[in-house]
Amino acid sequence: MKPFQASSGDSNADRRADFAEMLFVSGEAAQAAELLLGALELAPQWAAGWFRLGEMQEAAGFLDQAAQAWTMALKLDPVDRLGASLKLQLIGNAPAAAAPPSAFVETLFDHYADRFEEALVGKLGYRMPDFLDRAIRAARPGRFHLALDLGCGTGLMGERLRPIVDRLEGYDISAGMLRKARAKGIYDLLSKADLQHFSHAGPKADLVVAVDVFIYLGALERVVGAVAESLVDKGVFAFSVETTAGGEDFALLPSRRYAHSEAYVRRVLAVSEFAILSLESTTIRHDRGEPVGGLAVVTGKGHAV
Q1: Cα–Cα distance measured from residue 182 to residue 232, given in angstroms and rounded to the nearest whole number
Q2: Between 11-25 and 29-42, two packed helices, what is the crossing angle to 10 degrees?
Q3: How far is the C-alpha of 147 from the C-alpha of 161, rounded, in Å?
C-alpha cells in the first residue's frame, strides 16, 4: 500500500487548506468548507482533502454535499484509508457493513502509534489491561504455556501477561504498533495480521486475549470461531467490547468504532461452545470527559456451561 498523501502536493492548495482549518477551528464550518473546496479545484486528486471537506460540510449541516465529498475521497482512495465509507454509513448514505475497511484500521494505528500510550492511558484513563489481567487470574489461576495477544498494539496487555506465560505471541495489523511492542522485548513472536481474516497455524494456545480489539471488527462470528480453533481444550479466551445502548447486535458509532450488545456476545460465544467464566460491566476509557461503558469477558473452551 503506497504512503498516504497528507499534503495536496500543491503549495497554493495547501495554504488555502491551512486557512480553512483555522476557520473551522474558530467555528466557521461553512466558510471553511467553501475555502477548502477552492483548494481542491487546484488539487482535485487529493483524497484527504475531499475527506476533510466532507467533515467540514457535515459540521455545517450540508449532509448531501458531505456525502458527495466522501464519495469522491473513496473513489480516489478505494482501499479507504480514511474511513470515508464509514462516514457515509453514519449519515445513511451507504448500507451498514459488518466490518470496517482494513486499510482504515491499519492507517489509524500506524498514525497513532507514537502517541498511543500517552493518549490512551494518560489522557483517557484506559485501564482495561489491568482489569482483564485481574479477571483472567481470578478465573484461571496459575501459568499458561502459550498466550496469543490479538491486536496487541504497543504491548500494554502483553506487559501484564508476561509474568504468567511461558510463551507470548502478539498479532496486530499496524506495523507502527508492532515496532513499539518489539522495543519492549516482552514478546517471543510478533507478527502483522488482519484479525478480520485471522487464523493460527502454530501450536494451540491455552490463552487468547483481545483487548479493545472487537471495537474495530463489527461482526464477531468469524473471529470468535478462529479463536476457538486456536485454543486447546479448557483454554481461556478473554476480551472486551464497548456496549451498545440499542437492541441491535452491534452498531457503528460516530467514533467509527463498533459497540456490541451483551446478548449478541453471549450468543456468538455459545455457537463456538465457549462458557462464560466471568462477565463484568466496566468503564473502558473516557471520551470527551464521558465514561465509555463496556464488558470485560473471560470464557473457557470446553468448560461446563
Answers
A1: 27
A2: 170
A3: 8
Q: Kindly indicate whether the domain formed by 11-95 is annotated with CATH number 1.25.40.10.
A: yes
The Cα–Cα gap between 17 and 289 comes to 30
| CA–CA dist 105, 92 (Å, integer) | 21
Pure H helices in the chain: 11-25, 29-42, 47-59, 63-76, 84-90, 102-112, 116-117, 128-139, 156-161, 175-184, 221-230, 262-271
| pLDDT score of 235 more than 50 | yes
DSSP secondary structure code for residue 196 in this structure: G
Q: 13-31: per-residue pLDDT in tens?
A: 999 999 999 999 999 999 9
Question: What fold characterizes domain 114-301?
Answer: Rossmann fold (3.40.50)
What is the H or E stretch that residue 274 is in?
strand 274-287
Domains in the chain: boundaries? 11-95, 114-301
pLDDT in tens, 127-141: 888 889 999 999 999
Cβ(285)–Cβ(126) under 8 Å?
yes
CA angle, corner 114, sides to 109 and 116, nearest 5?
60
d(CA 13, CA 18): 9
* The C-alpha cell that represents 18 in the structure block: 491551512
User: Quick check: 124 pLDDT over 60?
Assistant: no
Report the predicted TM-score, pTM, of the whole model to 2 decimal places. 0.90
Distance CA 261, CA 238 (A): 17
- Number of Cα atoms under 13 Å in the Cβ half of residue 13: 18
Q: In the beta sheet, which residues pair with residue 190? A: 170
